[in-house]
Amino acid sequence: MNEPTAYHRPAGHEPAAVEVHHPTSLAPAHAMPLAPMQPAAVPSVASVVLPDGRVVTGYAINPMQPEPAVAKPAVSRAAVNVALGGVGFLAVCGGLLLLTTFIAALTALITQLIILAAVIFGGWIAVQIFSASGHRGGTTVNIRKAVIKRNHFHG
Fold first, then answer.
1. Prediction pTM value
2. 132 contact partners, CB below 8 Å, separation of at least 6
3. Residue 55's beta-bridge partner residues?
4. Residue 149 pairs with which residues in a beta bridge?
């Protein structure tokens, strides 16, 4: 009975197949082929003797020098102010031009509406006048036969 006992799995619990994925390296799309190059300068080798007598040899590291800043031409503050003032002036002129155009268009619209109202009202008056001669319901005065005496009509 010294045999190790095996774990018994219940029915329907068989081990699943294990799928192992191995990483694949991807070459960058912009990688350039490496070409052997000579260094710009052969670095100097320095040896340092430590206090305990050991000698350490290695390349000397020069501190990195920052790249010189590109000199920008100086622009005077007055030139910037003049340029900004010119831009502002053009913006105001453009706004006034648009405002003037809007006022002219609004004036034309109001004028056309007044003319349209006058035409409609005049047409309504003409219909009233010409339709009154067709039906005899009111008092009609024939001016040709009337005799005017002391601001009175006598017919």
1. 0.34
2. 138
3. 49
4. 152
